[in-house]
């Protein structure tokens, strides 16, 4: 049986992954501040996905 995740669980998993990635980047490259991640997330959300024809 395939277990499907609820939308809330998917959001939680995505936020956890983003936070873990942020922590790894801080450990590897030093603290760049939360505004860097905020800018990156805003850029990703503003992307316009175009259909390939």
Task: Provide a quick synopsis of the model.
This protein has 53 residues and is mostly helical.
Plain-language structure description:
This protein is mainly α. Helix content is about 65%, strand content about 0%. It is built from 2 helices and no strands. It starts with 6 loop residues before the first helix and ends in an 8-residue tail after the last helix.
Low-confidence stretches: none
Q: What is the H/E order?
A: HH
| Radius of gyration of CA atoms, rounded to a whole number | 15 Å
Proportion of residues in extended strands:
under 5%
> Kindly state the mean pLDDT as a whole number?
81
Q: For the report, how would you describe the main beta sheet?
A: none
Calculate the terminal CA-CA distance, rounded to whole Å. 36 Å
Q: Give the overall silhouette.
A: flat
User: How many helices?
Assistant: 2
Query: What is the β-strand count?
Result: 0
> Pairing-aware structural class of the strands and helices?
mainly alpha
Give the proportion of residues in helices.
55-70%
What topology emerges from the helices and strands here?
Elements: H1 7-29, H2 34-45
């Amino acid at each position: 049986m395939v277990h499907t995740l609820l939308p809330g669980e998917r959001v939680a998993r995505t936020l956890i992954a983003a936070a873990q990635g942020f922590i790894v980047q801080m450990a590897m490259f030093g603290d760049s501040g939360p505004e860097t991640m905020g800018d990156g997330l805003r850029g990703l959300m503003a992307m316009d996905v175009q259909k390939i024809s």
